Amino acid sequence: MTEDVQKHSVHTLVFRSLKRTHDMFVSDQAKPVAIDDQSHKLKIGAKMKADYSPVLHMPVLKESKERVHPMSGGIPTSQGYSQMGEDAEYLITGTHAYPSGPGVALTADTKLHRNPSDAGVQTVALALPPSQARQEASRTAASVAEIHRHYGGERSHAGTMALLDGGGGTRNALTRRTPTMPKPQWHPPWKLFRVISGHLGWVRCLAVEPGNQWFVTGSADRTIKIWDLASGKLKLSLTGHISTVRGVAVSTRSPYLFSCGEDKQVKCWDLEYNKVIRHYHGHLSAVYDIDLHPTIDVLVTCSRDASARVWDIRSKANVHTLTGHTNTVATVRCQAAEPQVITGSHDSTIRLWDLIAGKTRATLTNHKKSVRTVVLHPRQYTFASGSADNIKQWMFPDGNFIQNLSGHNAIINTLAVNSDGVLVSGADNGTIHMWDWRTGYNFQRIHAAVQPGSLDSESGIFSCLFDHSESRLITAEADKTIKVYKEDDTATEDSHPVNWKPEILKRKRF
């Protein structure tokens, strides 16, 4: 069944209204920052040299307010051009929108004219040549658009020249933009598509093969099972572990399947012969997760012995032992870019590792509870971590914090994200929350019924992931089943609208 997103109280709505009112008038109340004259002149000088150095050698033309402009039809500039701007003492030519002879440098003495106002347009209407007046008998019939075109008003120049007033004139005060929260993208809701039974214990881990034909699961019944992704039928069972299988990974570079378990063993299975061909010895306690590097032949495992180990797949050598965590390392992920290894631990920290040196590059200590899962975004250079306190998003390479995703109040065991920006979190109480990655909006909550015959307490989600087409979501659960979800094809934005209410934005204080 699907739960509705919780409705807000009157207090929250009133607080949100206050926040919107504050954001509306914050630019009026904010005190302008005093500008240092010397630094401002240096800034303007550097900007002029960088942007206008080709014309700085040209002479400056200063014209009087009372001087008759050749294009004004005999009207003094005090009556014509002074209406177009606040002050027409200096006339900018050449590189400006108003052509009036040879080019003139844009220096600290030159002031900025605005585009012609309506009054100014009327005063210079007589000055247009017949071709500009669309060959009409009366030149006064020229349109406002023609005058703007003749005087270069169609060229947008105010943006690049807004801060060129460095000679004692009025400086443009930049108004502070009010913070805005982007509206979340609409995602279709997900619904239960298939329930697969076959394991005799908790299903702890999942992996999909690169061809998207089958997927593999590991369970507390000490077996590894391979299932057909299209039909959900069992294809193969592999036995060999003597305790719970906690991690599986399928290689994209060779026909190998890797597994790890609470029996301290890390095994390499040859899928052409369906048997173990290598063991990786070294962990001192249960091995909780496993991942393959996408570009080089190394395998990374993490364990309850508070370490992660990097293995050479072919030689079985222990290349690195990544030490530094003070408690169980529950999850590990690899990527091609630096940092190449990311681990999450029960000591509430996340570590980003330099694979070449085998040392910690950064330690993230924002979480207050055990970090049980980490997921990397398939397109962005970001990742998310799941804990009982929050889901947090981070940015590589230094682990800069992005935002919290709050509301999934349970022990989060697993995270998955697809290219469309759908983040899925699965918890120990059997709940699944769907989030919009960019905004952190929780657009769906699912609590599927447990398998008949199972205890209600056996409803935890231990692992979830999308298949390679990203059209199916597979979950491994404590009721000994594998559940497959798919998007609801009949859903539209009208039938399932985005019930989005922006949270109160906290202004950063420096």
Distance between the ends: 46 Å
Provide the spatial order of strands within the biggest beta sheet. 1-26-25-24-23
Which consecutive residue ranges, at least 5 long each, have pLDDT under 50? 63-114, 132-144, 150-174, 506-510
- The number of distinct β-strands equals 29
Strand content: 25-35%
Average predicted confidence as pLDDT: 80
Short description:
The protein has 510 residues and is mainly beta. The protein is built from 4 helices and 29 strands.
Task: Outline the secondary-structure elements.
Layout (H helix, E strand, L loop, with lengths): L1 E2 L6 H20 L7 H16 L65 H6 L20 H7 L39 E8 L5 E6 L5 E6 L3 E6 L5 E6 L5 E6 L5 E6 L4 E5 L4 E5 L7 E6 L5 E6 L3 E6 L5 E6 L5 E6 L6 E5 L4 E5 L4 E6 L6 E6 L5 E6 L3 E5 L4 E6 L6 E6 L4 E6 L3 E6 L5 E6 L13 E6 L5 E6 L3 E7 L23
Antiparallel strand pairs: 1-26, 2-29, 3-4, 4-5, 5-6, 7-8, 8-9, 9-10, 11-12, 12-13, 13-14, 15-16, 16-17, 17-18, 19-20, 20-21, 21-22, 23-24, 24-25, 25-26, 27-28, 28-29
Account of the 3D structure:
By secondary structure, the protein is mainly β. Helices cover 10% and strands 33% of the residues. The protein has four helices and 29 strands. The strands form seven sheets. Strands 1-26-25-24-23 form a five-stranded antiparallel beta sheet, with no helix packed on it. Strands 2-29-28-27 form a four-stranded antiparallel beta sheet, with no helix packed on it. It has a four-stranded antiparallel beta sheet with strand order 3-4-5-6, with no helix packed on it. It is globular. The C terminus is likely disordered.
